[in-house]
Structures are given as C-alpha cells and as structure tokens.
Amino acid sequence: MNFPLNMKPKVKGLTGLVRGTMFAATVASLALMAGMADAQTLRAVKHSDLRVLDPILTTAYMSRNHGYMIFDTLYALDENLAPQPQMVESHEVSEDQLTYTFTLRDGLMFHDGASVTGADVAASIKRWGERDGMGQVLMSFVEDMMQGDAENQFVIKLKEPYGLVIDSLAKPSSNVPFIMPARLAETPSTEAIPEQIGSGPFKWVEDEYQPGVRAVYEKNEEYVPREEPASFAAGGKVVMVDRVEWVVMPDDQTAFNALQAGEIDYWESPPSDLLPILEANPDITVRNLNALGMQTIMRPNTLTAPMDDVLIRQAAIASVKQKDVLDALVGNPDLYNLCGAMFVCNTPLASDVGSETLVEGNGMDKAKALLAEAGYDGTPIVIMHPTDVGTLRTQPVVVAQAMRDAGFTVDLQAMDWQTLVGKRASQASIADGGWHLFMTNWVGADVFNPLVNNMVNGKGPDGGWFGWPTVPKLEELRTAYATAPTLEEQKSLAEEIQKIAYEEGVYAPIGQYFVPSAWSNNIEGVLDAPAPLFWNISKK
User: Fold this and answer.
1) Tally of CB atoms within 10 A around 209
2) Pairing mode, if any, of strands 83-85 and 75-77?
3) What is the pTM of this model?
4) Is 22 exposed, middle or buried (0-12, 13-18, 19+ CB in 10 A)?
5) Cα–Cα distance, 533 to 519 (Å, whole number)
6) 313-363, pLDDT tens digit by residue?
7) CATH superfamily ID and name for 294-513
8) What is the overall mean pLDDT for the chain?
9) What CATH number has the domain spanning 27-44+225-289+516-539?
10) What CATH class has 72-195?
11) Beta-bridge partner residues of 84
C-alpha cells in the first residue's frame, strides 16, 4: 500500500521551560572532542548508544541506523512512500504472478571485496523473514527463494500471488531487509552476526568502536551510488564526507553545549525545552525530518502473570491518559497529537476505534472495575524504566503513577536502554527476572499498516514480537489484509485488526509526537527520511 506523506508538521511557536543554567561540558567530553578540526569528519550525537550491531537481531533503532550505514537494500521508499529499486537493476514477474526474477546492478561489492550475488540476497531475505513481521507474512507466501541462472540474479517463487512482494523488500524501518554476505546471513536469526560486512556506502571501523563513547564509519570508496537524486531512503547514496562519528553524550546539556560550540555537527533528538534556544541561533537549523512522527507505546507481556489475564491488560491501558504522557514527554502541544490510531493519525488507515479512554482520558473508573472483576491480588507489576534516553524515560513514570491510581502495585525498575533491549527478549517468569510492561517508540513508517506494525502480530512466543500475544484472529486478518485488492477493503480490515488488538490488550499507542533534529549550518543536504541518514550531506 503506497500513499504520499500528507502531514508535514511545522516546528514553530515552540514553547516550554528553557533551562536557565548552561553546564560546562564534562572533562571526558572535552577530551573526546580534542583535535576535531578535520572538516571531512561529521560528528553526530544520536538518541542512544550503539550496543547491538546486528540490525536483524533487534528492532532497536540504533541498530537499524547502524544497518543503514554499512548495508544496502534491494528497494527503498521515496518521499511519496513508493518503492524504488536500490540494489536492483530490473525485475520481471511471470504471467501467473508466481515467479519474481530480480537482476542486481553491476558493480555491487561487499566491503571484503566479494561481489554481491543472488545467493547472498536469498540468504539475507530468508534471515530477515524469520524476524520481521512483514517479512514473516511474505515468507508465508514463498515456496522457494534462490539465486537465478546468473550470479547477479535472485528468484522468488510464490505458492500463490502476493501483491506486496516489492513493498516488503522496500520496508524502510525495523527490521529492514538489509543484504549481507551469505556466510553472515546463514547465522541463526537468534544469534548476532560475527562481522559487520555489507555493501553499503560506509564501512564499519571496528578498531575505533568504543561502546558508551563512539562508533565510527568511513566512506566506502568502492560504493557506486544510483544516479537518481536522494529521496527519503531511495535514490543515490552519495557520501560527501570521509568519516562519520557517532559520539555518545547521554547528558542533554553536554550535547547542547557541544552543538552550540561547533564540537558536533548534528543532534538527532534534542529535548523540546531546548529547541527555542537552538532555533534562535542563526548558525543552527532545527527541522522535523519524520513527517509521520513517532508513536510512543506501552507493551504488556502476555506470558507473565497477572498480565496474562486480558482483564488486567485492559485495566492497565484504561488507566492511562495520553495527554498526561505527552505533556510529560513533549510538553509543547504543537509537537504532539492525541491519537489512538494504531496505524498512525493522518494516514488512510487511521481509526479511533477502541481508543476512547486513552484519548479522552476518562478510563480510571473502568480500570478499577476491570481490576475488581479480574480479582487482582496486588501482585507487583514490573515496569522497565530506561533512564538514559530522553524520549523514553518519562513514559514509564507517568504510566506507573496512573496504574497506582487505578489500584495496581507497581515495581518501577530503573535500567539503561540497552539493558532493557536485552531484558525484553526474555520470556522468563517474574521470579526469574522477567517483566510485565515496557514503553518504546516507533517511527510512523514502522506502524502505518498491519503488516509493518509488529505489535499487532498475533503469533505468540514462536514468531511474535516482545510481549508475544497469541491471537490467531489477528493473523487471519493480517493475511486477509495482505491480499486485499482495494484500499477500502484494507481500511475495513485494518479497523477490525485495531478493534481486536485493543480488546485483547496487546498494546496501547499512548501518543503521536514529533522530534525535530538540530544541526550546524556548516552541513548541508540533511534528508527527510524514516531514519537518520548520513549520505547526501556535505560539510563546509
């Protein structure tokens, strides 16, 4: 399903509490910044540290961002959300619509010097298809996948016609169908790949990687970009700097000072209270790069008691007010929407069905009644609370208080985000270190239809996303959506999926918001895109 972006929120009239005191950069940061005069090195502060390097192993956005640096994709979405060829030169579809034959562009090479082959593509797509929700749907239609008659050909044979083959291969965000050497792609999808070798526009500099300090990438001199202009994630990936360094600065004030002083070039997600100062600086540009915004969500673990009881999950969701969450997270109403649409507001699939208490904020009595009906016995609810990511640390606090007000006993467990990313993958009981709830954020491109939205996956512990709800009806409807011939049928099915997902308490969107990025005017060419992309950027 393709449709143009029809929502371009403007970052204007920004208000909020401006921090009155500017703290000096830490000694460690100053040392890190020493010698940063090279104009061909672009330095960026991202929203988090990079710990998991395999972008298929996790949906964490830092891992996705890393993937875009070193890997390439068969197709990519342009600014109209239309799939465009990337590594592919051309493709043919058989008359019966069951066989897709793809021919790769000439000159595609991995960073180790090996040519990209159809066998590499087949292994990569198979591995991605084991982990990703949209990939799983695609693979349910696939009979076989293999190298073609020539080494630069890749063939997909379907069991029955499926109209979203190209759309699936162009998926823009977590998990992205990145192409890697077959020897790496043959790594079980539950294990991390042992090397960071792709065919993308940057090379990974392993010996300079320091978790908690920085990640470094160098221009891939052998990369041959497409001739088309860069557009969203599509087009020519022309690298115009020699190096990109992702510098870790978990303290917002340090990052703010570094950008103002010219010690860094780009800040992915500055907090909203500092945006007015940054906007007032004529040497800095502030702009929202993600037109669909972000969806912040709460996700229950359906495997751990008492969250395995649908009434308990419904009670937790009913207790929450989106406005309270967004006021704490963002503060500025110009930068958020009260939106209960699981597939994002201002898109063709937007619906408010099932979201009334979240949006209207009137669900507390309902929450208390549901707890009483469930016979809740006061068992502490473990909520994971990442304290080191500005866009994630407020939601758990607000949700925890709302749930306490409803009658829950809450155990709010502080941890860093990378610890949470590891812990959320555990299906252990609470006694063995498990969890009941966590909050995270998704870019709109990751949730705007039932196939890309991992939270409406009903596969359970075997193939589902963290939280693992088992809801066969959701899978039935997602399959129907995948083969629906018209937008009207897709809309109807999407609304039914949302209705059931709310009824089952599989997750709750607790607001839609926008996070402008900020960068020094000494760089040009920053792209509107579903992820922070570092090609097309030149440095003065």
Assistant:
1) 16
2) antiparallel
3) 0.82
4) exposed
5) 13
6) 999 999 999 999 999 999 999 999 999 999 999 889 999 999 999 999 999
7) Dipeptide-binding Protein; Domain 3 (3.10.105.10)
8) 91
9) 3.40.190.10
10) alpha beta
11) 76
Whose structure tokens read 């007015």? 276
Report the run of H or E that residue 337 belongs to, with start and end. Answer: strand 336-337
Q: Where exactly are the structural domains of the chain?
A: 27-44+225-289+516-539, 72-195, 294-513
Name the percent of the chain lying above pLDDT 70: 93
SS3 of 400, please?
helix
Whether 4 has a pLDDT exceeding 60, the answer reads: no
Report the pLDDT value the prediction gives residue 37, as an integer from 0 to 100: 44
Q: Give kind and range of the element (H or E) at residue 328.
A: helix 322-329
Residue 175: asked if its preceding bond is cis (omega within 30°), the reply is yes
Q: Each residue of 520-535: b (16+ CB within 10 Å) or e?
A: beebeebbebbbbbbb
> Running DSSP on this structure, what letter comes out for residue 194?
S
Find out whether 334 and 480 touch, Cβ atoms under 8 Å: no
Residue type, 132: D
Q: What's the rounded mean pLDDT across residues 76-105?
A: 96
The distance of Cα 292 from the centroid of its chain, to the nearest Å, equals 12
Fold equal for 72-195 and 294-513: no
Most confident of 154-158, 484-488, 512-516: 154-158
Q: Decide: helix, strand or coil at residue 350.
A: coil
Task: Yes or no: say if 444 and 343 are a contact pair by the CB < 8 Å rule.
Answer: no
- Tokens representing 56 are 């298929």
Residue 27 has pLDDT above 60, yes or no: no
Q: Quote the CA–CA distance of 341 and 351 in Å, as a whole number.
A: 5
User: What number is the average pLDDT over the span 453-481?
Assistant: 94
> Is omega for the bond preceding 211 within 30 degrees of 0, making it cis?
no
Residue 176 half-sphere exposure toward CB, CA atoms < 13 A: 30
**Cα–Cα distance between 348 and 152 in angstroms, integer?**
37
